[in-house]
Each structure stands twice: as C-alpha cells, then as structure tokens.
Amino acid sequence: MTDRITLEIEGAIATITNRNPEKHNAFDDEMDFALFDFLDELKAKPEVRAVIWQGEGKSWSSGRDVGSIGVQKTELTHHQLMTRGLRGIQKLWDLDQVFLVACKGWVMGGSFQRALLCDIRIAAEGTRFRLPEVTHGVIPDTGGVGVLHAICGPGVVSDLVLTGRIMQVEEALAHGIVSRVVAPDDLEATVREAAEQIAASPAVTVKMARTVIRHLSIPAVRQSMEDELIYQTFVNKSDDFAEFRAARAEERTPNYKGS
Fold first, then answer.
1. Domain at 5-205: CATH architecture
2. What is the pTM of this model?
C-alpha cells in the first residue's frame, strides 16, 4: 500500500488526500489501486456521509505521472488496463457518500476527469484546469468529457479537448465546472463546512436528491466511457500514434495519414 494517497475517517466525514506533492500529486498505478480500495472501504461504512478529496502541497492533481507509465510490468493488454481503470473509478457511482473536491493549483488530465465524476467542486483562486491528452497523441478516457458536455456544451468541450489549452478558474466558474471560488487560505474551511452541512442533513433526503441528479447524467457518461474505451484502444494501435511517438523520439515533423 502506498503512502502517496491516504484515507482518514472522522465521524461522518472522510478525507482522501493526494500526497505526491513533489509531482503536483500526479497519479501512478499504486495510487490508483489504493484509491479504488478506499472506495471499497467507504462502501462498507454507511455512517460516513461526505468525503472530502483534497491534495497536499500546491496542486490537487496534475493527472498521470508520465514517469510511471510502462514501469509496472503486466501481462494485461492496453484494453484490459483501461477497463480496470474505468471500472475502478466507476465505484464512485455505487457509493451513498457525497464527494467534494477541493481544487487548487493544477487539476489536469485524468484527475480533472475524476474530479468531474464527483458531486461538488470548490476551487481556490489561481486553480488551472486542462485536458492535454490530444497533445500527447491520445484522447481523454476517464468519463470527464461526458460530464463536461452536460455542463458546458460541445463548443467548450471541443476547445478544451482539441487544443489542450489551460482554463483559468474564473472561466471554470462561469461555465459551472466549479460551484465556488474562494481564497486559497479559505479552501479547506469552505469545503469542510459544506461537508458538515451535508452530513448534518437527513441521510435519506440527501441520497434521494443525489440520485435524481445522477439519473440525469450517469447513463450518458457511462456510454461516453464505453466509447472512450473502444476508441482509445484503437488510437493506441493506430499508425498515426506510432508516427506521433516516432516523430517525437526522432525530433522531426510527423507525417500523419489519418489511420
């Protein structure tokens, strides 16, 4: 078990903390496995009413630790690895706890998408959001595109995904990606206050209200994730992706053929 992500439970509120600050809390496989184990643990604790997901240091999470890619040897295919990851994060949908994300610094890539699968996102001033996958030759594949489409519409999603540009927190608030923006020093207290308010409300009422909200989005997001699984696998085996990697390694202009 890694110490780069932890779960602490205090009464009706649990806290998941990303603890890889020297890499802006980028995730590796061990952190993924620990996170998915935490979700299993929380499922068995109905007395926990709200979960705060926060990050140690400057950022909530900068996405995937590229230095860890390919380090863990496995006999699983790319498709199987993706399936394992998608099934792991979809455990969020099986939990009754409300998940609140304390966004700060970088919220990027797959981690940004995981934050979008949670219930509430509150951000500190200066937070930056980004989906850089296309600039690395792949597509977003953690379900966040489906959530963003529901929140922002196709224009904003296309801009973020196809250009990989950085979105500042003020724009994220304007689009509804986050519900509040607070001073950095106020982030922890604001998220805690929201969690305490949820935990103090009637459990069945919160559960039913959350179910109504989720019924509006989860079916479409689940379908989006199934599409991502298929198309990301195709991209991984494509000639263009092989050309992307070769051109980068050889420091030359790539010659893409659309296949």
1. Alpha-Beta Complex (3.90)
2. 0.94
